[in-house]
Amino acid sequence: MRLYTSQETIFNDEYFMRQALREAKEAYEKEEVPVGAVVVLNNQIIARGHNQVEMLNDSTAHAEILALTTAYQALGSKYLPDATLYVTVEPCLMCCGALYWGKIGKIVYGTGDEKNGYQHFTSTNPFHPKTEIITGVLANECAKLMKDFFRARR
Q: Cβ contacts of residue 132 below 8 Å, gap of 6+?
């Protein structure tokens, strides 16, 4: 399904994942693990986030958590049933918990995370039962950014 706001821009999963990738690249430049996220409601980005664990000295400062917090504040709500989270890497269990409690409507992520992603720890769905999950959007680009980051640090 393609949605248009102008003849030049197509707002779809790939478009919004590219926005999340921009956030991930910002994290990379700050020497943070390059994960980026955006929260979208009615085809508009209402919140952005990228990992800030090192900068804030806070192990909970993941891209998803920061984007969710901003979205809650923007809407004055603790639930996001009509929103979509785009995140470059499979969420960890901590982020899954936050997404569960926020009742987010849809989660789209790029690449899997064999070491820290939720699928490594559980075979059950850790998200709200009504949450739709889409995986693999721009997976190669998302994975390459992570691989480049860790390769440069070895």
A: 105, 106, 107
